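Box 4.2: Ligand-aware structure prediction
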Amino acid sequence: MDKTILLGHGSGGVMTSDLISNVFVRHFNNTLLRVMGDSALADADGTLIAFTTDSFVVDPIFFPGGDIGKLAVCGTVNDLAVAGARPLYLSSAFILEEGFPIADLERIVVSMADAAREAGVEIITGDTKVVKKGQCDKVFINTAGIGTVEKKYAGISSGALISEGDQLLVNGFLGDHEIAILSAREDLQFETPVISDVSSLNGLIGQMLDAGIEVKFMRDITRGGIATILAEIAASVNKGLLIDEQSIPVREQINGICEIYGFNPHYLANEGKVIMVVSPGSADRALEIMHGHSLGKDACRIGTVTAENAGRVLLKSPYGGTRLLTKLAGEQLPRIC
Ligand code: MG
């Protein structure tokens, strides 16, 4: 194990999961934590609640399509929503650097208030800390969120419902968020600016559940990208995933930028994308519903759960060959969320 923290420990890939297992889960060690879902599901006097927390350190704090505040609200709402929960309440804790303009703080807070209103949640508690100039970078935000889970959706967050033949769906183009951050940070000028996809998915997900779509599992496709998340799903449920490479939706422009910067689009982070595993009989209806929603109009089916190749993700190329898709090994771009 590494002796000191490296940037890669925050990538959301292999190094992050190793650190979580070897340090946090090892010592906090309890049944609910060991599930390691987007939210923990806990029983509160007969009501099933989902509970999650996130920290946000994105650089820059304002970027095309959003800011650190919107990211904080949407990210937390999404971790609740993909657990099958109805997000209700959030906390927000601020770590502020001495000298940070209050006008910028207010702009971030207004953005959080707007995002919360839009997602139908309330921010009902918080905390404020200030550190000396140079001891943090402008502003870091920590949020926690709770929501309630109907008993019939209790199985969604663990992955235990996933079975052979299930279909994998994504709600649109991948990679926009990470490239939007890159372009803001490096001051890159593209003819068509790349806008972050940061958005709350609870509306879209709620519609699917209300329509009776047989949702087996969901995960928001954040750090580590689609590749890391698929690899995690395959390993945790010990099933194979067969993915059609051509069907993974990535904009032409994003592919082009990836080529220049040596990024692999399959590892790009998103902040408004979800992978849904649904029963084969629900897939067509699920896509229909997604296509009717503003956050799912480019939704598509990208693959199937298989009994063979248990624990692995196989990517089928347009030329007929297949190759293994693995978790993000190092770090593509630090501080993207
Ligand atoms: Mg998540």
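In the box above, the bound molecule is magnesium ion. The chain has two domains: 35-153, 167-325.
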